[in-house]
Amino acid sequence: MTGTAALLMSLLMLAAFALAAGGVWLIAMGRDRGKGALMLLAALVMLGNVLIWTL
Fold first, then answer.
1. Which of 2, 37, 6 is closest to 22 using CA atoms?
2. What is the distance, to the nearest Å, from the Cα of residue 13 to the centroid of all Cα atoms in its chain?
3. Nearest-CA neighbor of 15 among 54, 52, 55, 49?
4. Would you say 50 and 13 are in contact if contact means Cβ atoms under 8 Å apart?
5. Which of residues 55 and 16 earns the better pLDDT score?
6. 3-state secondary structure of 47
7. What local confidence, expressed as pLDDT, does residue 2 receive?
8. Distance (Å, rounded) from C-alpha 44 to C-alpha 32?
9. Is 23 exposed, middle or buried (0-12, 13-18, 19+ CB in 10 A)?
10. What is the distance between the terminal CA atoms of the chain, rounded to a whole angstrom?
């Protein structure tokens, strides 16, 4: 994997962790459960993409 690809994978993983944390926080605080669930789903999609690209 080249330097640019590794950088993009790292950024995607950081974004996935941030989305997951934000989604859990929204659901736990009871603010907007729908947006929290969508954030968790987006984090799972990003994680899946990274797993596929690295295989």
1. 37
2. 6
3. 49
4. yes
5. 16
6. helix
7. 84
8. 19
9. buried
10. 11
Query: Exposed, middle or buried, 22 (CB in 10 Å: 0-12/13-18/19+)?
Result: middle
As a whole number of angstroms, the distance between CA 4 and CA 42 comes to: 23
pLDDT at 21: 97
Alpha-helix residue ranges (DSSP H) falling in 1-55? 3-29, 33-54
Q: Give Cβ neighbours of residue 33 (< 8 Å, ≥ 6 apart).
A: 26, 27
Structure tokens at 51: 């797993």
pLDDT digits (tens, 9 = 90+) for 1-54: 789 989 999 999 999 999 999 999 999 999 899 999 999 999 999 999 999 998
